[in-house]
Specification:
single chain, alpha+beta, 8-stranded antiparallel beta barrel, 6-stranded mixed beta sheet, 23 strands
C-alpha cells in the first residue's frame, strides 16, 4: 500500500507538472510578443548618428529578454526597411488575436505635410516632394498594424534628433499634431507630426513638441538609457514606466528634453511580468527620489499640499495641461514656475492646433493664426486655409438628407483617450453659431462654438486671389508683309517709273530679345481664376527688306523697313487652377510705337527718287496663354505666349529729286508678331 501511495503521489505530481507546462504554453501562445527594431546611424547622404545602432542593439537585447520575437533592421536602405516591415507584419498576423506588437526606431526622422517619415541610410533629397518615395512613412507602419489582430501596439521613437536637412525645406524634431497624414503640412516648423492611430496604441516620443532630442555623449542616447534602465522592473505598467523615463531624461538633460507619449491602450501592458512566487501581490507604488506618486494622478489639493519641488516634478511626470495649471495656481512664486508656464503654454497651443487640424475648415485655420500669431504653425494654417472648406458648407453638408454627410470628428478634453479628469482652466467666452434646423428624420447637429474675436482686417483669400507685379524676359518674332501700290501723274511720263517695274510685295521681318514688366489682379472661384493684366515691353524687332529689278536698262531698287520699339497690352485673363499650377488664356488690346520707312531708287539717278518715313503709335489686338506655378505664398513662376497684331499702316512715298512732288506710290505694311516670355510674379 505504501508503494502504491507513493506511485499515486508521483503520478499526481507528473500530471500537475504537465498541466502547468500546458498552461504556460497556452499563456505564452495567447500573449505572443513581436517587435520590429530599426537602428539607422550610418547615413551616407546626411549627418551620421553615433548612438543609433547602440540604442537599437541594446533595445533588441532587452526585448528578447522580455519574451519578444524581434525582427531587426540596422543601417537599412529603403528596400531593406520595407522588406523587414513585410516580414514583421506577416509574423504579427500569424500570431493571431491577443498578440502584442512593438516598433522601436532610432535614427533620423522628419515630418512633412503632417506625415512622419523614417529615413533610410541611403536617403538623398533635392526636393521635399521626393520624400514620400524615398523614406518609410510611420503612417504606413501603423496602418499595417491596425490591419492585424494585435491587441497592443506600441511605438517608441528615439528619432527627434537634429534635422539632417537643416538647410533644406524639411522639418526637424517633434511636432504635436493629432492628425496622421493631414491634408498638408508645413516646411518650416519643428518636428515629427503627432499621430493618432486606432485603439490599442501607445506612442512615445523622446522629446516634447517643438524640441529636439540629444543623440548622447555616452553609449546610448539619454532617452534610450532611461528606457533600458527602467524597463526591467517586473510588473511595472507601461504608463508608469514612461513617467519614470520622462523624469529621468528631464534630470539628465537639466530640463532641456522632456519625453512625451499618448495612449489609447485598452489592456494593461508590462514588459516584464511579476515573478510567479508572489501571485496576487500588488506592485509597490513607484516614486521618484523626491517622492511624487506616479500611480495616482495628483489633484489640485494634493499639489497645494506638496512642497514646490515635489509639485514641479509631479507636473513634469504627468505632463498634462490641467496638472500644469493646477501646479502653477498652487505655487505661482516658485522659481520653477517659468518652466512650467512654458510647458503649459506649449501644450495649450499644440492642443488648439490639433483641434484646428481636426476641424479642417478655413475659419478655424484663420482663427488659430489670430490666436497664436507667433506659433510655428501659423504658416501652415495660412497655407491650408485657402484649400479648406468653409464651415458653413460643412454644416450644410452634415444636415443635408441627400448628399453624403460629413463624418463627425470626436473631440477629446486632452490628447489621450484615458484622460477623463476635467480641465481646471476657465472656459473662454464663446458665441453660438446659428444653424438651420435639419429636416425631419435627421439628427440635429451640435452647435459649433468659437471664441468671440473681432473680425480680421482683410478677408481670407484663395491662393490665386490678389494683386501682383512682376517682370519677364523672352524673345519676339515680327513679320510685316508690305504691299506697294500707286503710280505718279501721267504728265511724268519722261521721268516717272513704271509701276510694273517695281516690286509689288516685300516682307521685312526680324526677331530680338524683349524685356517686360507686368501688373495684374486675380480672383479665384473654386478652380476658376479670373483677372486682368497690363504689361509693357521694351524691344526692337522687325527689319529691312529690299528688292532690285532691271527693266529695259533701268535698275530700280525698292526698300521697305518696319520696326517695333515698344509694345503694351491690356488684357483679360481666365484660367483653371490645379493646386499650385494654373493654366490661363488672355486676350485684349495692344498698342506699340512703330517706325516705318520706304524708298524707290532708280539707276541712273537722273530719274526721280521716291522715299518716305513715319513714326506712329499703332494699335490692335493681342491673344495668348501660358502656365503659372506657385513657388510660395507670394511668388510664382510664369511662362506665357502672346500674339499681337497692330493692324495695317500706310506710308506715302514722294519724289525727292526732280521738279515734281506729286505722290508716286504707297506702302501698306501689316505689323504682327509673336512673343514668348518667362518671368516671376510677386503677389500681395
Amino acid at each position: 500500500m505504501r508503494i502504491q501511495s507513493r506511485g499515486l503521489v508521483a503520478f499526481a505530481t507528473l500530471v500537475m507538472a504537465l498541466a502547468i507546462l500546458a498552461l504556460g504554453a497556452t499563456s505564452a501562445f495567447a500573449q505572443k510578443r513581436l517587435a520590429f527594431v530599426i537602428g539607422n546611424g550610418g547615413y551616407t547622404g546626411v549627418a551620421p548618428l553615433q548612438n543609433a545602432l547602440n540604442d537599437a542593439n541594446a533595445t533588441r537585447t532587452v526585448l528578447q529578454e522580455a519574451g519578444f520575437e524581434v525582427v531587426p533592421a540596422t543601417d537599412a536602405t529603403l528596400t531593406g526597411m520595407r522588406s523587414a516591415l513585410e516580414t514583421f507584419i506577416e509574423r504579427v498576423r500569424a500570431a493571431g488575436p491577443g498578440a502584442s506588437a512593438m516598433v522601436y526606431y532610432a535614427g533620423h526622422a522628419v515630418q512633412l505635410d503632417g506625415t512622419n517619415y523614417l529615413l533610410p541610410v541611403d536617403v538623398r533629397l533635392e526636393r521635399s516632394a521626393d520624400l514620400s518615395s524615398r523614406a518609410l512613412s510611420l503612417s504606413e507602419i501603423l496602418r499595417r498594424l491596425d490591419g492585424t489582430s494585435a491587441v497592443s501596439k506600441i511605438v517608441v521613437l528615439d528619432a527627434c534628433r537634429n534635422n539632417p536637412f537643416a538647410n533644406a525645406e524639411l522639418s526637424r524634431g517633434l511636432s504635436l499634431q493629432l492628425v496622421d497624414g493631414a491634408t498638408e503640412g508645413i516646411r518650416s516648423e519643428a518636428g515629427l507630426a503627432r499621430i493618432d492611430s486606432g485603439s490599442g496604441t501607445f506612442v512615445a516620443f523622446s522629446t516634447s513638441p517643438g524640441a529636439t532630442a540629444a543623440d548622447g555623449t555616452g553609449a546610448n542616447s539619454p532617452f534610450t538609457t532611461a528606457f533600458l534602465r527602467e524597463i526591467r522592473e517586473p510588473g511595472l505598467p507601461i504608463e508608469q514606466l514612461f513617467r519614470r523615463i520622462r523624469l529621468a531624461v528631464h534630470d539628465t538633460t537639466s530640463g532641456q528634453q522632456i519625453p512625451w507619449e499618448t495612449s489609447s491602450l485598452i489592456t494593461d501592458f508590462t514588459f516584464f511580468q511579476r515573478p510567479a512566487a508572489t501571485p496576487g501581490t500588488a506592485p509597490a507604488a513607484p516614486t521618484t527620489a523626491q517622492g511624487p506618486s506616479l500611480t495616482m494622478r495628483p489633484t489640485a489639493a494634493a499639489l497645494r499640499a506638496m512642497a514646490p519641488a515635489d509639485a514641479y516634478r509631479a507636473a513634469i511626470a504627468w505632463d498634462r495641461r490641467d496638472i500644469y495649471r493646477a501646479t502653477l495656481d498652487a505655487h505661482p512664486d516658485d522659481e520653477r514656475a517659468v518652466r512650467l508656464h512654458r510647458s503649459f503654454s506649449l501644450r495649450t497651443e499644440e492642443t488648439t492646433w490639433a483641434e484646428t487640424a481636426r476641424a479642417g475648415d478655413a475659419e478655424s485655420y484663420h482663427l488659430f493664426a489670430r490666436l497664436y500669431p507667433g506659433s510655428t504653425h501659423v504658416a501652415e494654417a495660412l497655407r491650408l486655409a485657402p484649400a479648406a472648406p468653409s464651415r458653413n458648407r460643412v454644416q450644410v453638408a452634415a444636415a443635408c438628407p441627400v448628399c453624403q454627410a460629413v463624418p463627425t470628428r470626436t473631440r477629446r478634453a486632452e490628447m489621450t483617450p484615458r484622460d477623463v479628469t476635467p480641465r481646471d482652466a476657465a472656459p473662454a467666452r464663446v458665441v453660438p453659431v446659428r444653424q438651420t434646423p435639419p429636416p425631419a428624420g435627421v439628427a440635429p447637429a451640435q452647435p459649433a462654438e468659437v471664441p468671440a474675436l473681432p473680425p480680421p482686417l482683410l478677408p481670407g483669400k484663395p491662393r490665386w486671389t490678389g494683386f501682383y507685379i512682376g517682370g519677364s524676359v523672352g524673345g519676339a518674332d515680327q513679320r510685316s508683309p508690305t504691299r506697294i501700290a500707286g503710280v505718279g501723274p501721267n504728265n511724268e511720263v519722261q521721268t516717272s517709273i513704271d509701276a510694273g517695274n517695281v516690286a509689288a510685295r516685300l516682307s521685312p521681318s526680324g526677331r530680338n530679345v524683349t524685356f517686360s514688366g507686368q501688373a495684374g489682379f486675380n480672383y479665384q472661384i473654386g478652380m476658376v481664376v479670373l483677372g486682368a493684366e497690363t504689361d509693357f515691353s521694351a524691344m526692337h524687332t522687325g527689319g529691312r527688306k529690299s528688292s532690285t529689278v532691271n527693266p529695259f536698262g533701268v535698275q530700280v531698287t525698292t526698300q521697305a523697313q518696319n520696326e517695333l520699339f515698344t509694345l503694351g497690352t491690356v488684357r483679360g485673363r481666365a484660367g483653371v487652377a490645379f493646386g499650385d499650377l494654373m493654366i490661363f488664356a488672355t486676350g485684349g488690346y495692344a498698342y506699340g510705337h512703330l517706325g516705318q520707312r520706304g524708298a524707290i531708287n532708280p539707276d541712273p539717278t537722273n530719274n526721280p527718287t521716291y522715299a518716305g518715313s513715319n513714326g506712329q503709335i499703332a494699335s490692335g489686338w493681342a491673344l495668348g496663354g501660358g502656365l503659372e506655378y506657385a513657388l510660395g505664398p507670394m511668388l510664382s513662376l510664369k511662362f506665357d505666349y502672346l500674339r499681337y497684331d497692330l493692324g495695317t499702316q500706310r506710308l506715302v512715298l514722294s519724289e525727292t529729286l526732280g521738279f515734281f512732288t506729286d505722290e508716286y506710290a504707297t506702302m501698306r505694311a501689316k505689323t504682327r508678331g509673336d512673343m514668348v516670355r518667362m518671368g516671376l510674379n510677386i503677389g500681395f
